[in-house]
Write a structure and sequence with these properties.
The protein is α+β, with helices and mostly antiparallel strands and 342 residues long. It is built from two helices and 14 strands; from the N terminus they run ββββββαββββββαββ. The relative contact order is 0.18.
Length: 342
């Protein structure tokens, strides 16, 4: 059995402190220690001389007057109530009080959160909601078509024809295409195979935890009756040792894989140029083409604009053709494009 020490307690009635755990009654006011008493270790250690005869059971709590009584008492020393009617000892009383306090704090916190949460949520959400609505409204306004009146200062147009040229180009490939000319070939590295070549012996430092004995840790166990028991715990202690370890490290090499690669000339249709026409009149046209056999048309593109107040608006040919320079028009516009005439 471990050594027994005398603890301390404070009187919850007159606030006398560091009263010896051997005292059942406050020496200042004469009030017996009750339910709200908590035992603790004092600064100095006072060992019980005859620990073998010490009762290590906790005090029991009188349900009538809340007085703590020694385990050997059959009746309450304060009111005379029989112990059989007691439902809790020192530790059980503390646990019950702890649970009640936690439940009360939880209810109070929940009430505060609900009260402040509903107020703060209303306050904090309103500005955020207004900002979001304003942003959404701005985005909708910017992206949705709207009507506008304008004076047509000028009209411009541009038409272009893309020209491809049939020409000889130099290429290379691992596969020879049809129609290749002036073909040459040579063996070149196509890829690499990563293969094991050999092993090399290496060394490294390896850390190892080694048992190095025990450290004694002392704990003071509250017996719940004004006394504490000194309990020793043996904590295993370890040290770190290092040793050199040899191992075989695989060494890999990259072996090139050769394949035949072809170099050749081949005829391809490739983009060469655009033949573009533009103007500020009402009669757009494409460039007249007189192409040799080695050239061909690959596509046409046309674009039209209305200029008003120094700003250029895209417009379809059908609408552009209906508008006269100097006229005042009403249009439905989206960004910088006229969608329809109103």
């Amino acid at each position: 059995m471990g050594k027994i020490l005398v603890g301390c307690w404070d009187c919850d009635y007159c606030r006398a402190d560091h009263i010896s755990g051997a005292e059942k009654i406050c020496p200042r006011c004469g009030k017996p220690r009750g339910r709200d008493v908590t035992f603790y270790m004092g600064e100095s250690k006072e060992y019980v001389k005859d620990p073998e005869h010490v009762n290590k059971n906790p005090d029991w709590l009188c349900p009538y007057c809340n007085t703590l009584n020694p385990d050997e008492n059959k009746f309450c020393s304060a009111c005379g109530a029989a112990r059989e009617e007691s439902e809790a000892n020192y530790f059980e009383s503390k646990e019950n009080e702890k649970k009640k306090k936690a439940e009360l704090e939880a209810k109070l916190n929940q009430g505060r959160e609900n009260s402040s949460g509903s107020r703060s949520a209303g306050k904090s959400r309103m500005p955020l909601l207004l900002v979001m609505l304003a942003l959404i409204a701005a985005m909708i306004f910017m992206t949705m078509p709207h009507k506008k009146g304008m004076k047509v200062d000028s009209k411009t147009w541009e038409r272009s024809i893309s020209i491809e040229k049939y020409q000889e180009v130099k290429e290379s490939s691992w596969n020879l295409p049809g129609g290749a000319l002036n073909v040459t070939s040579r063996e070149e590295v196509y890829t690499y195979n990563h293969v094991l070549d050999h092993y090399e012996t290496r060394t490294r430092q390896v850390a190892e935890r080694v048992f190095d004995g025990y450290d004694t840790e002392i704990e003071y166990k509250d017996l719940g009756n004004g006394l504490f028991e000194e309990v020793e715990h043996q904590i295993p202690r370890y040290r770190t040792e290092y040793h050199t370890e040899t191992y075989e490290e695989p060494i890999y090499i990259d072996i090139p894989v050769f394949e035949k690669k072809y170099y050749y000339s081949i005829m391809r249709w490739l983009y060469d140029r655009d033949e573009t026409t533009s103007g500020a009149d009402s009669e757009p046209y494409y460039a007249e083409l007189n192409l040799p056999e080695t050239e061909r048309e690959s596509g046409r593109r046309e674009r039209y604009w209305i200029i008003s107040g120094g700003k250029k608006y895209k417009i379809s040919y059908d609408l552009w053709n209906q508008i006269k320079t100097g006229s005042k028009i009403k249009v439905t516009i989206h960004s910088d494009e006229i969608l329809e005439l109103n």
